[in-house]
Design brief:
single chain; alpha/beta; Immunoglobulin-like; eight-stranded parallel β-sheet; seven-stranded mixed β-sheet; 15 helices; 35 strands; globular
C-alpha cells in the first residue's frame, strides 16, 4: 500500500529537501480513490508567525490513488513546519509525520522544511574532498628544539607513552603532559597525508595555551611555542598547498584560558595585566564578574575557562575586525575555521565572524561544532540559524557518526537510512555536500574501540586506562572499521579522518582517544584500505555533489547510489557487513547503461562482494 505522504520521495515533495527562498515547492498527498476528501489543505507555519493555509487541488487518479497537490513558495528563510488538514467523510483529520518521513492520519509530528537564502554557496574545493583531523601534540614531532617553552610542562621522552590520566595530589586534571608534536612534524608527514587522498587538514587548536588540548587559549595571536612559530605555520601552509592540501584552524571564541594574557589569573603574564589582576585592563570588559575578581562566568562552571562576552565591541573587533585574529591567520595561510562549541556563540557574533572571513573570499570555509541536527537546534532558548545563509557553511556531522557506527555494530538498518536521510533532507544541499563525516573525534572514543570493545558506559578513567581490545576484538574491529569507512567515504559529505584511525588506533575517551600516532607500528592493511577508498572517491565527480538514494538496506548489507544528473552519471555502492557473499546482477545495477567496476569483482554478469567487503560500480 502506498504511503499517504513521504517527504523523502519527490513523488510527494519536489524538490527534495531544503529549498532556496522564493523557490517553488510542490506538495502532493495521496488517498485511495474511493476516499471522500473535502477541504484538503497544506498548513505551513513558522514559530512566531501565523499559519498559512494553502488549498490542495484534486489531481489525477492512477493505480487506485487520487493526488491532491499545491505549490508553496516561501518568502522567508529559516525553519518552517507543515502538516495537512482535510475532511474525510466530513470529519476533520490531520496528516502528520510518523517516524522519519511518512505521513499518517491524526498521530504524529510536524514535518520540517528548511528555507535558506537564494544563491547560498559553499566552497567548491571541499566538495568531493577528504579531510584529515590532527591533534597537534600527538601526530608527529620534528625533534627540532623550540624556544620559550613554559617551565611547567611535562614532556614525555617516550612517544608511545599513554597520556597522563590520573589527577594530581589536589584531585585536579592538569592536562600538562606533552609529547612534542609540532608543525614541522606535521609538515614532514604531508606526503603520507596526501597519499590518503586528503585535500584538507583540520588542526585542533594551535595557539598559545597552557594545557595540552589548547582549548584554553592564552594568546590568539601566537602559535604555541611547543608547536613552533608564526613562520613555521606559514611555511607549513605553503608546503601543504604545494601538495594540493589546505589547512583549517580551530577557533575557540566562547571562552579563553584563565591562564592567559587576557585574564591572567595566575600572574604568568605579569602583575598588572589581564582582567583578573587589573580592573583597568583593556580586557576587563570581555568578561562577566559578579564579585570581582574571584566570581565570574565560566564555561560550564570550569573556572580555568572564563567565558567571554562575545558581543562586547572590543572583543568582537579583536577577533572579527579588519586585521583581527580571523584575518591574520587567513593571511598567513589558513583556508578557514572550525568553531568550537558553536552553540555557545551568539548569532550576532557568528554574523560578524562570517563577514570577516568571507571578506577574504568565498573560498574560505566556516564549520561549526554542533552535535545535533543543526537546522532545528535551539540553544539558550534561541532557535539557531546556522545554515540558512550568512553564518556557517556546514557543521560536524555527529548524527552521521551515530547512525553509521550503530548500524555497523549490528543496529537497526532503518535507523541508518532514517538517520542519514533526515540530515540530507533538512540541510541545504550546499552544506550537505561538505558535511564533516567522521567516525571519531578528539571528543569521542576511537571508532574501533566503539565497534569492538566493551561499552564504556559510566566507567571512569581508571577503568578505561586498563581496558584495551583483545587480539580477537581488534581483528573484528578492523573488519567492522572497514565497513564503516565505506559508508563514511561514499555517503554525502566529506570523510573526515581522525588521525591514526586509518592506522588502527584504539582508545576510549579523553585522554585515551588522544594518544600518539603509532609510527612504525601502523596497521598497514587498514592504511592501504583507506588509500583505496580515497582513490575511488577522487576518481569520480559523482561523490562531490551527487544525490543519495538507498536501494536496499538490511542487517547484512547496504546498497545505495549517488547520482549527478547534471553529469549524467551515478555510482552504486554495495557494502557487505555479513559473513555471506553478496551478489547482484549487472542488469539490476546498471540496466542497459554502460558501467565500469571501480572496485569489486564482476563474474558472469554479476557483481560479487565477499564477506565484509564492498563494491563500487560507475554507471553512465
Amino acid at each position: 500500500m502506498k504511503p499517504i505522504f513521504d517527504c523523502f520521495l519527490e513523488e510527494y515533495k519536489s524538490p527534495f529537501g531544503a529549498i532556496e527562498r522564493g523557490r517553488e515547492c510542490r506538495f502532493t498527498i495521496k488517498f485511495p480513490e474511493d476516499t471522500m476528501i473535502e477541504e484538503p489543505m497544506l498548513v505551513m507555519f513558522r514559530p512566531g508567525f501565523k499559519e498559512r493555509f494553502i488549498k490542495l487541488e484534486k489531481g489525477e487518479t492512477s493505480e487506485g490513488y487520487t493526488d491532491f497537490s499545491c505549490i508553496y513558495s516561501p518568502n522567508d528563510t529559516g525553519l518552517h513546519h507543515y502538516y495537512f488538514s482535510l475532511l474525510i467523510n466530513r470529519n476533520r483529520h490531520y496528516v502528520k509525520k510518523n517516524g522519519a518521513s511518512v505521513g499518517v492520519i491524526d498521530n504524529g509530528d510536524l514535518f520540517q522544511l528548511t528555507v535558506y537564502e537564494a544563491g547560498m554557496t559553499t566552497p567548491d574545493w571541499l566538495k568531493g574532498g577528504i579531510m584529515y583531523q590532527i591533534f597537534p601534540d600527538r601526530f608527529a614531532s620534528s625533534g627540532l628544539p623550540h624556544e620559550n617553552i613554559p617551565y611547567d610542562r611535562k614532556i614525555h621522552t617516550n612517544w608511545n607513552d599513554i597520556p597522563d590520566w590520573k589527577p594530581d595530589s589536589h584531585g585536579n586534571i592538569t592536562n600538562n603532559d606533552y609529547f612534542g608534536g609540532d608543525l614541522k612534524g606535521i609538515e614532514g608527514k604531508l606526503d603520507y597525508i596526501a597519499s590518503l587522498g586528503c585535500n584538507v587538514i583540520y588542526l585542533n587548536p594551535i595557539f598559545e595555551a597552557h594545557e595540552n588540548h589548547r582549548y584554553c587559549t592564552a594568546d590568539y595571536s601566537k602559535i604555541d611555542p611547543l608547536l613552533g612559530t608564526e613562520e613555521d605555520f606559514s611555511h607549513f601552509c605553503q608546503a601543504a598547498a604545494e601538495k594540493g592540501i589546505r589547512v583549517i584552524l580551530d577557533g575557540v571564541f566562547s571562552h579563553t584560558g584563565a591562564d592567559s594574557i587576557y585574564f591572567n589569573k595566575f600572574g604568568r603574564y605579569g602583575d598588572h595585566t589581564g582582567a583578573f589582576r587589573d580592573p583597568n585592563s583593556p580586557y576587563r570588559e570581555w568578561y562577566s564578574f559578579s564579585q570581582y575578581p574571584n566570581v565570574y562566568e565560566s564555561w560550564w562552571g570550569i573556572t580555568t575557562l572564563p567565558n567571554v562576552i562575545e558581543n562586547n565591541p572590543a572583543y568582537t573587533n579583536y577577533i572579527c575586525g579588519e586585521g583581527g585574529i580571523l584575518q591574520k591567520w587567513i593571511d598567513l595561510g589558513a583556508s578557514g575555521w572550525r568553531l568550537d562549541v558553536a552553540d555557545e556563540l551568539p548569532d550576532e557574533f557568528i554574523d560578524n565572524l562570517n563577514k570577516s572571513v568571507k571578506s577574504k573570499g568565498d573560498e574560505y570555509v566556516i564549520y561549526g561544532e554542533v552535535w545535533e541536527d543543526a537546522t532545528n537546534k535551539e540553544s539558550y532558548g534561541v532557535r539557531r540559524r546556522y545554515l540558512i545563509g550568512g553564518q556557517l557553511d556546514s557543521v560536524m556531522n555527529y548524527p552521521f557518526k551515530e547512525a553509521v557506527l550503530n548500524y555497523v555494530k549490528g543496529g537497526d538498518p532503518r535507523t541508518l537510512v532514517d538517520g542519514v536521510m533526515t540530515i540530507v533532507e533538512h540541510y541545504p544541499k550546499p552544506s550537505t555536500d561538505i558535511l564533516m563525516n567522521f567516525l571519531t573525534t578528539h571528543d569521542t572514543e576511537r571508532a574501533i574501540t566503539r565497534l569492538a570493545g566493551e561499552d564504556v558506559g559510566w566507567n571512569g578513567r581508571e577503568w578505561q586506562s586498563c581496558h584495551q581490545l583483545s587480539n580477537e576484538q581488534y581483528a573484528y574491529g578492523i573488519v567492522l572499521m572497514k565497513c564503516a569507512m565505506v559508508l563514511q567515504f561514499f555517503l554525502p559529505g566529506i570523510p573526515s579522518i581522525y588521525y591514526a584511525d586509518e592506522a588502527g588506533k584504539e582508545g576510549y575517551k579523553d585522554p585515551f582517544n588522544r594518544g600518539t600516532y603509532p609510527w612504525g607500528a601502523e596497521n598497514d592493511e587498514l592504511i592501504a584500505f583507506t588509500r583505496e577508498l580515497g582513490r575511488i572517491r577522487r576518481s569520480s565527480k559523482v561523490f562531490a555533489e551527487g544525490t543519495i538514494k538507498f536501494i536496499d538496506v538490511t542487517g547484512d548489507y547496504a546498497i545505495f547510489e549517488r547520482e549527478d544528473k547534471n553529469l549524467g552519471m551515478k555510482a552504486v555502492i554495495m557494502m557487505n557487513r555479513s559473513k555471506h557473499k553478496l551478489t547482484r546482477t549487472i542488469q539490476e545495477i546498471a540496466g542497459m547503461r554502460s558501467f565500469s567496476v571501480l572496485h569489486g569483482r564482476e563474474d558472469t554478469g554479476k557483481i560479487c562482494v565477499e564477506p565484509f567487503g564492498y563494491a563500487v560500480i560507475a554507471v553512465k
